[in-house]
Design a protein that fits this description.
Layout (H helix, E strand, L loop, with lengths): L2 E5 L5 H12 L10 H10 L8 E5 L2 E11 L2 E9 L8 H15 L4 E7 L3 H9 L3 E11 L9 E2 L1 H11 L10 H4 L6 E5 L2 E7 L6 E8 L1 H8 L5 E7 L3 H8 L3 E12 L5
Parallel strand pairs: 4-5, 10-11
Antiparallel strand pairs: 1-2, 2-3, 3-4, 5-12, 6-11, 6-12, 7-8, 8-9, 9-10
Length: 264
């Protein structure tokens, strides 16, 4: 058996979609992409297709690792291996290759999230030197229409959020990600602000950022559709407001970081 690693760019986007779907078909939370969604992830999350890697076993693609790059910070945007090639060390090879690519680009920290139930991946990341930063949660809240409009320009809402927020945003909701969204919308109240996007396919109102007193903001957001907040820090007051309004946690993840600054 021969394992070869190549840049993700060596496969077409259609081939990468097929590989992702094959690797994630029996995941803790099964996930499927299409080409437009994968291209969106590349654009929104700054996934670098030259630094990202594909694993081939005897010439056939069997695994992938996505690497997002922003100055001296990097993010693991998904690692997967197809069922028939697991328990052969391919996931670890992919991770090490991503670390090498990050280090070659002067990255200081590599971030990732791992779902609570994925113990095997968590143990691998610990082995590789990742430290737990915090727990983050994916929240959902059913829609409720006929709320007054509190919409303001995105720039205005974002300025308010920067004044009020107390913690760093996860990669998927950071300022750098927000800058890629041409369809973002702003909401502001006397006590806070939020930025959201409305998914054209599902109609869900995805909260990108939110800060300040959350209840009135969430009531306004839910007038756009079912509310989704990705990777909200556990214990955040927004989560408590979501719960009071009838929302629920659908996924819990560990946010982890690897320090590359001392790597030789």
């Amino acid at each position: 058996m021969t394992i070869e690693l190549r840049p993700a760019r060596s496969l077409s986007i259609a081939e990468r979609v097929a590989l992702f779907n094959a690797a994630y078909e029996d995941y803790v939370i099964p996930s499927r992409l299409d080409e437009s969604t994968l291209q969106g992830m590349i654009d929104w999350f700054d996934l670098d297709v030259d630094a990202s890697r594909i694993a081939l076993r005897d010439g056939e693609p069997v695994g992938f690792g996505n690497l997002g790059l922003r100055r001296d910070q990097a993010w693991i945007g998904g690692v997967g291996v197809v069922t028939s090639a697991r328990r052969q060390g391919i996931g670890e090879l992919l991770m090490q290759a991503l670390h090498d690519e990050a280090a070659a680009r002067s990255v200081k920290q590599v971030w990732l999230e791992v779902i609570e139930q994925n113990d095997a991946a968590y143990r691998l990341y610990e082995k590789l030197g990742y430290d737990l930063v915090r727990w983050v949660e994916v929240w959902t809240l059913p829609t409720e229409s006929s709320r007054p409009s509190l919409e303001v320009p995105v720039e205005q809402a974002h300025a308010r959020i920067r004044e009020l927020r107390a913690e760093h945003e996860p990669w998927q909701r950071s300022d750098a990600t927000l800058a890629h969204y041409a369809d973002a919308r702003g909401i502001e109240t006397d006590e806070g602000a939020a930025i959201l996007r409305v998914n054209r396919v599902t109609g869900a109102a995805q909260v990108v950022q939110i800060a300040g007193e959350p209840r009135e903001l969430l009531q306004a957001v839910r007038s756009y559709g079912n509310v989704v907040i990705l990777n909200l820090p556990a214990g955040d007051p927004v989560g408590e407001a979501m719960r009071e309004l009838g929302g629920a946690v659908t996924v819990r993840q560990r946010e982890m970081v690897l320090d590359l600054s001392s790597r030789g």
